């Protein structure tokens, strides 16, 4: 059994997609980041960076005690290796998949996250910041579009690279992007959106009935974090 510490954000969706695709049993442990539940001392033992998602695997393959993992890319890699699914076994296929997973973790996610912040959430509209991150989003969409021009999925077969990238493309309109400008991304996006496991993953988010993450009360929790007080 996998315990998934989750909130319905792009990074959270990555893991529900994988778990629905592979069929591993799991239990969602909601972490309401708008209320600051990511700072709970028990959660910090699992995820010291006070970010979700995180998992605890109660049946790791080494036969030892429960194993906790934080960071969505590390979780995807771990689950792929545990199940033998969605990560090629051959050297070149694995390298292709892992480099595009890291591309998402280091580029697509952080830059689109800044887009979300300055376009939607920042209390002050800063034209330079908005233009900077909207254009970087456009550039990254272009990189992905070129990558998908001659292949069905990012690394060839459907993989954890696709699961990592897809949730960040879901809010494309909010990112001021038109998928018609990126026909290969649009084709890829439509194919993943139609997968039953992906639809089940997003239904899990709806069942959670999560309130809006960003409210006036939650801004200080989410955007005003400095160094945590030492215990």
CATH superfamily annotation of the largest domain: Glutaredoxin
| CATH level 1 class label of the largest domain | Alpha Beta
Helix coverage percent: 40-55%
Structural class: alpha+beta
Name the average pLDDT: 94
- Count of structural domains: 2
Q: What would you report as the Rg, rounded to the nearest angstrom?
A: 18 Å
Shape: globular
Remind me, CATH topology of the largest domain?
Glutaredoxin
Number of strands: 4
Q: How large is the count of helical segments?
A: 9
How large a portion of the residues is in β-strands, by DSSP E? 5-15%
Termini separation comes to 32 Å
What is the second-level CATH architecture of the largest domain?
3-Layer(aba) Sandwich
- Low-confidence residue ranges: none
Structure description:
The chain is of the alpha+beta class and 231 residues long. The protein has 2 domains: 2-85 and 198-223, 3-Layer(aba) Sandwich (Glutaredoxin), CATH 3.40.30; 91-194, Glutathione S-transferase Yfyf (Class Pi), Chain A, domain 2. It contains 9 helices and 4 strands; from the N terminus they run E-H-E-H-E-E-H-H-H-H-H-H-H. It has helices spanning 10-22, 41-46, 72-83, 91-121, 127-147, 160-169, 183-193, 196-208, 219-223; strands at 2-6, 26-30, 54-57, 67-70. A 4-stranded mixed beta sheet has the order 2-1-3-4, with helices on one face. The longest helix is centred in the middle third of the chain and has 31 residues, at 91-121. The protein starts with a strand and ends in an 8-residue tail after the last helix.
């Amino acid at each position: 059994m996998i315990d998934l510490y989750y909130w319905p954000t792009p990074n959270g969706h990555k893991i529900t997609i994988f778990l629905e695709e592979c069929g591993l049993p799991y239990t969602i442990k909601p972490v309401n980041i708008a209320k600051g539940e990511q700072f709970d001392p028990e959660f910090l033992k699992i995820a010291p960076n006070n970010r979700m998602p995180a998992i605890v695997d109660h049946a790791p393959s080494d036969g030892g005690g429960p194993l906790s993992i934080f960071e969505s890319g590390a979780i995807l890699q771990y689950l792929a290796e545990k199940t033998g699914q969605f990560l090629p076994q051959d050297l070149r296929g694995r390298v292709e998949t892992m480099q595009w997973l890291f591309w998402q973790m280091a580029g697509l996610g952080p830059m689109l996250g800044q887009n979300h912040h300055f376009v939607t959430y920042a209390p002050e509209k800063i034209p330079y910041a908005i233009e900077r991150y909207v254009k970087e989003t456009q550039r990254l969409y272009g990189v992905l579009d070129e990558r998908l021009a001659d292949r069905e999925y990012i690394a060839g077969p459907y993989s954890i690279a696709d699961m990592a990238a897809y949730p960040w493309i879901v809010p494309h309109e909010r990112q001021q992007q038109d998928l018609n400008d990126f026909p290969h991304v649009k084709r890829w996006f439509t194919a993943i959106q139609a997968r039953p496991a992906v639809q089940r993953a997003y239904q899990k988010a709806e069942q959670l009935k999560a309130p809006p993450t960003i409210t006036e009360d939650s801004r200080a929790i989410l955007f005003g974090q400095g160094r945590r007080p030492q215990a």
